[in-house]
Amino acid sequence: MKEKQIQSFRKTLIDWYSANRRDLPWRKTKNPYHIWVSEVMLQQTQVNTVLPFYPKFLNAFPDLKHLADADLQDVLKIWEGMGYYARSRNLHKAAGIVMNQYAGIIPDRWKTFRELPGVGDYIAAAVLSMAFGKPYPVVDGNVKRVLSRLTLIEAPVNKSSSTKHFQETAKEMLDKENPGTYNQALMELGAMICRPKRPLCGTCPVQAVCLAYLSDRVAEFPKKIKRQPTPQYRIAVGIVFKNGQVLITRRKLEGLLGGLWEFPGGKIRDGERAEAACIREIQEEVHLKIKIDSYLCRVKHAYTHFKILMDVFCCSYVSGRVKLNGPVDHRWIKLDKLKNYPLPRANHKFIPQLKQYTASANSRNYDKPDDAVLRTKLTPVQYKVTQEEGTEPPFQNEYWDNKMPGIYVEVVSGEPLFISLDKFDSGTGWPSFTKPLKPENIIEKEDRHLFTVPTEVRSRHGDSHLGHVFPDGPEPTGLRYCINSASLRFIHKKDLEKEGYGEYLKLFEGEQ
Ligand code: SF4
Q1: Which is the catalytic residue, given 39, 275, 281, 415?
Q2: What SS3 state is found at 467?
Q3: Which numbered atom of ligand 1 lies nearest the CA of 206?
Q4: Which of 318, 343, 363 is the last residue of a domain?
Q5: Which of 54, 199, 361, 401 is most exposed, with the fewest beta carbons within 10 Å of its own?
Q6: Cα–Cα distances in angstroms (integers) from residue 128 to residues 35, 108, 122, 138, in the given order
Q7: Mean pLDDT across the stretch 6-21?
Q8: CATH of the domain at 62
Q9: 24: domain range?
Q10: Is the whole-model pTM more than 0.70?
Q11: Is the CB of 191 under 6 A from ligand 1?
Q12: What is the tens place of the pLDDT at every residue in 458-484?
């Protein structure tokens, strides 16, 4: 672009921004600390997510001194839910350095400010231009996209070797008289008009100088290199109960989710069952022997470079003393104290189910199922089909063939004695109950398998929640059956003979 065009571009952009900018709290201040906080938050996080966190953070730590004096755990707690926790740890550390080395005054020189923890080129340019009017151009994803379209930059935006090119172009275009406003205007244009998909070229204030628009090549820019698909890891997590308390551990301060608290667990190995991984991970991580009581739920979560599929189990402490291998701290706490600890978002996702679980376990006298009572109060089985065809959450995932015809069956009253299923084809899988089925619970008969339902399963989950079938076996227990509709029957004891299963009546010898 020629200098005259660039000048016109700057003016048009700033005029548009002045008239159209969003009313955001950090745009009403020149306080370098406030601007710094907002820019750190806005890195990797969308404006709408940041909006409630920004005032909360400034309320808790109104100035640099408050932040520097604060306990890191309190800082993490306020940051909880926004992700990328290294940002808050670095900001906390940088505040301490500014207090100690620069008498609490945020440096306005590039070299000094840029050396602070967590301050990269983007944060330095943003804070120095917006708070101090220094002529540094910001280069973030929005800016790269806009510049690439405006000037037809062929360099891929997601390749690190392209950064220099974008920085040079950004520097050339920068309004040095008004760098703070210009930088914000350019980012605002990227966020509101020159969006990644379907840019609003028709209403764009700078379309007259946009080379992509003028040459009808908007769809070609920005150029990108193809990335490898994001890997996904399977994780097993255990909520270990002991004397009414649960175990949480603290991650080491460095690295992903550093300093946060979580329930222990870890990666499921290839071919390993989720339950087995949970038991093994807890043994390795905290040296406790536990037993699994129940499957709680499955949680999906995405981080920047990978995704996780997390199976969560409720467990009971069996033996051992906590000895940490990996985590740096641990606590046994009552569940209602969990809110005092900063937890990763993936852990927050299953807290509602955990609350429900503890409430229902308490109401069913969870620890002392009365088998005798259950066995003598058998009533005819009633059940209902809740869904035909396909699956529904929480079982809808990549391990599940969504096209698989199936039904969900909830037992709504009565106590089924047997569940009769067609024999599974190889790879179809076995029913999985909250307690592993013992061999005597499984009976093979011609083309069918017959399962007795362990009484503790009935007692722990009530009439409507017995178990489910997964298609590929190594899955945790759950709350429902999902199987081919033709393959399932519930058979009451009194009907066994009539149904040709009389020989199994001996299983109930001694019962009333
Ligand atoms: Fe982006 Fe279209 Fe505006 Fe060009 S005209 S800057 S492509 S919105």
Answers
A1: 39
A2: strand
A3: 3
A4: 363
A5: 401
A6: 9, 6, 10, 10
A7: 96
A8: 1.10.340.30
A9: 3-220
A10: no
A11: no
A12: 333 322 223 333 333 333 333 233 333
